[in-house]
């Protein structure tokens, strides 16, 4: 892995017991382990569960309160301006997770954040409804005091409409900055870089050694020229153990990917990261002393919000305990290729017929059958170099 600079890594890398990792992973998938694996697990669930779980957040997109059959989860990664509520929050990643009634596999489909959709009105946030990019739904719901709950509600309802009335049994929101601390608790993750990736967020001053943003940006938020004396962080193809700051920096990138696959490359890298994190969480030994991780458990609720649809967290864990990283199938929207349309000078992504059929299959619990007929939709989550894609459209906002 081609790291081009040094960064101070926190000296303490505390390892967490399984219950803590379950809480961490609920922000990515909620699919590890068993509550009974930890001595005192029931007590920990009772003590910390209310810090992780939240009511509401799904509106009319909520399913019933039965998780014995097929399950659908909405995972949302957000960029939230800490301490500046007026700046709102954006949904930087949107993933639909489908678990069939057999509860033995999970299918992950990333929805392109630039997908053109109809967003329904939302009275609480005073949004009147309209057509926009799908990631705007969270921001519109968040405004005027709606906050995370209403942002998630409006996004869930938008995704539900896009997927033909799909209902969600639960959802999870992860804040990027808070997630870094949780990955630090795992001691980083093993990632396989599949294409040369240049960071627009992290760089190093060749004279002073100081970290900083390496590129200048134009009015549309697109990186243009390197700043004087700045050298960007570069990730070369290959596998290595990444500390949290590197892994999260890598999966944020979409502008300077070697294969010009933009958001589709970023979606693939995010899916690879989920698998890597789950693998790390299940590979380490389990500690049974909850006092050693009390501080970390107390901080989880600040980074992860799991909207459990009034179903106890212990029930979720027991229902999904058989799904391991090997049982994750990551899927491509639009077969991982740009399908863009410019409307009034704004570039959008349009879901192709096959992707819409995939979303319909999610609602009908026949994803396995559909994927068997369309094996080309399965993403390689191991980090095998990806095929070049068409250039990313230039009319879009900065991530």
TrEMBL record:
<dbReference type="Pfam" id="PF03816">
    <property type="entry name" value="LytR_cpsA_psr"/>
</dbReference>
<feature type="compositionally biased region" description="Low complexity">
    <location>
        <begin position="385"/>
        <end position="399"/>
    </location>
</feature>
<feature type="region of interest" description="Disordered">
    <location>
        <begin position="376"/>
        <end position="399"/>
    </location>
</feature>
<dbReference type="InterPro" id="IPR050922">
    <property type="entry name" value="LytR/CpsA/Psr_CW_biosynth"/>
</dbReference>
<comment type="similarity">
    <text>Belongs to the LytR/CpsA/Psr (LCP) family.</text>
</comment>
<dbReference type="InterPro" id="IPR004474">
    <property type="entry name" value="LytR_CpsA_psr"/>
</dbReference>
<feature type="domain" description="Cell envelope-related transcriptional attenuator">
    <location>
        <begin position="90"/>
        <end position="282"/>
    </location>
</feature>
<protein>
    <recommendedName>
        <fullName>Cell envelope-related transcriptional attenuator domain-containing protein</fullName>
    </recommendedName>
</protein>
């Amino acid at each position: 892995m081609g790291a081009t600079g040094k960064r101070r890594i926190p000296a303490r890398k505390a390892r967490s017991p399984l219950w803590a990792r379950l809480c961490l992973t609920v922000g990515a998938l909620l699919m590890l382990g068993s509550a009974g694996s930890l001595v005192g697990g029931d007590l920990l669930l009772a003590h910390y569960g209310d810090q992780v779980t939240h009511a509401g957040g799904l509106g009319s997109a909520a399913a019933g309160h039965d998780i014995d059959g097929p399950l659908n989860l909405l995972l949302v990664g957000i960029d939230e301006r800490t301490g500046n509520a007026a700046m709102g929050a954006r949904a930087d990643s949107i993933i639909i997770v489908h678990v069939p009634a057999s509860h033995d596999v999970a299918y992950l489909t990333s929805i392109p954040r630039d997908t053109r959709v109809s967003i329904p009105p939302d009275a609480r946030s005073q949004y009147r409804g309209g057509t926009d990019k799908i990631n705007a739904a969270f921001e519109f719901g968040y405004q005027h005091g709606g906050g995370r709950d209403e942002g998630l509600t409006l996004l869930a309802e938008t995704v539900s409409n896009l997927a033909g009335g799909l209902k969600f049994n639960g959802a999870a929101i992860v804040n990027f900055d808070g997630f870094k601390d949780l990955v630090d608790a795992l001691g980083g993750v093993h990632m396989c870089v599949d294409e040369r990736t240049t960071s627009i967020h992290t760089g190093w001053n060749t004279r002073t050694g100081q970290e900083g943003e390496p590129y200048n940006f134009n009015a549309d938020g697109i990186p243009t020229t390197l700043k004087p004396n700045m050298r960007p962080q570069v990730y070369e193809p290959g596998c290595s153990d990444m500390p949290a700051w590197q892994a999260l920096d890598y999966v944020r990138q979409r502008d300077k990917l070697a294969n010009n696959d933009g958001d589709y490359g970023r979606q693939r890298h995010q899916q690879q990261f989920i698998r890597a994190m789950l693998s790390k969480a299940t590979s380490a030994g389990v500690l049974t002393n909850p006092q050693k991780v009390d501080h970390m458990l107390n901080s989880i609720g600040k980074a992860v919000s799991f909207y459990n649809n009034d179903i106890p967290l212990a029930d979720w864990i027991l229902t999904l305990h058989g799904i391991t990283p090997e049982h994750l199938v990551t899927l491509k929207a639009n077969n991982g290729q740009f399908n863009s349309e410019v409307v009034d000078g704004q570039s959008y992504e349009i879901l192709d017929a096959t992707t819409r059929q995939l979303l319909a299959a999610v609602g009908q619990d026949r994803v396995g059958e559909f994927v068997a007929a369309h094996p080309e939709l399965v993403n390689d989550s191991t980090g095998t170099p990806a095929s070049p894609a068409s250039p990313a459209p230039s009319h879009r906002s900065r991530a």
